[in-house]
Amino acid sequence: MKHLSRDVGRLFALAFLLTSLLNAEAQSNATDYTGLTLEGLYNGKSSFVVSVRTKNIDRKITVHSKHWGRSSQPEQRLIDSLLVNLSGNDVKLPDSAYDSLLNITLPGGIRAYVESGQFVLRIGGGDGGNAYVAFLYFARDKLVRREIFQGSGSTEDQTPIDVIEFR
Predict the structure, then answer these.
(1) Of 70, 130, 103, which is closest to residue 149 (Cα–Cα)?
(2) How many CB atoms lie within 10 A of CB 144?
(3) Is the pTM of this model over 0.85?
(4) Reduced 3-state DSSP string for the chain
(5) What's the rounded Cα separation, in Å, for the pair 74 and 143?
(6) What angle do CA 123, 125, 129 make, to 5 degrees?
(7) Computed from CA positions of residues 65, 128, 97, 158, in that sequence, does the dihedral angle turn out positive or negative?
(8) Listing from the earlier edge strand, what are the strands of the sheet with 35-42?
(9) Which is the most buried residue in 59, 87, 91, 134, by most CB within 10 A?
(10) From first to last of its 167 residues, what are the pLDDT tens digits of the chain?
(11) 102, 103, 82, 105: which is closest to 93 by C-alpha?
(12) Which one, of 51, 56, 60, lies nearest residue 76 by Cα?
């Protein structure tokens, strides 16, 4: 009987430890991303690094009508910084390239690829009727154009709802 109570005590201690580990694992899987860094090659030889950081803002802060991806939630998430480095050169980005993009989807909403020889950064955000996809086009290591499309699906056969040309 003495050994049985000791074994039961060990069993309860083991069960408590396993429960604690499972709870910690469940909490770590519910990560709320606040940033992302992408690194790779484009055009077969040129390197890129894209780093995005976001922050939450209180809804009391005025959100003007040109903000894409607005939410009915009490907080909005905006891009705090967007850094792009192409071929070892930091690309100067005006705030207007990203400051109107709210509630970006991390980590999956940020993608980088090459289209017609241009480096393209795709940023998706919003939800439901407020979903959008923004494309930032770079040529010769400079930002040249931003296009925004309504929705989160394919943009083929769509006309952008907002376009900014950068010089």
Answers:
(1) 130
(2) 14
(3) no
(4) CHHHHHHHHHHHHHHHHHHHHHHHHHHHHCCCCCEEEEEEEECCCEEEEEEEEEEEEECCCCCCCCCECCCCCCEEEEEEEEEEEECCEEECCCHHHCCCEECECCCCCEEEEEECCEEEEEEEECCHHHCEEEEEEEECCEEEEEEEEECCCCCCCCCCCEEEECC
(5) 33
(6) 135
(7) negative
(8) 35-42, 46-58, 75-86, 89-91
(9) 134
(10) 555 455 544 544 434 333 433 333 333 333 456 888 989 988 888 899 999 998 887 654 455 557 777 776 657 788 889 999 999 999 999 999 998 888 888 888 899 999 988 999 999 998 878 889 999 999 988 999 999 998 877 777 788 988 999 98
(11) 82
(12) 56
Residue 23 corresponds to which tokens in the numbers above?
Answer: 């709870």
Q: How many residues does the chain have?
A: 167
* Residue keyed to tokens 């939800």: 127
